[in-house]
Amino acid sequence: MNYQKLNNIKVLGNFWGFSSFVFLSTMEQTTSLWDCGEYITTANKLEVGHPPGAPFFMMLGRLFSAFPTRGKMHP
To answer: How far apart are CA 60 and CA 63, in angstroms?
Structure first.
């Protein structure tokens, strides 16, 4: 293994380690309370969410919410 390849592996490892540290240190402790509920509501009712609105996600969510389920989803 030459020094350039070893140096590239070290740089890649440092970049991956730093990226993982930033991701894990800024990750939420619980579920998000901002966009998740809004996306579920707008997909179910086919409404316009805040810009840009994610129209494909809304239509796909509406398609899957139209399928019947095995009873109630809440206790």
So the answer is: 5
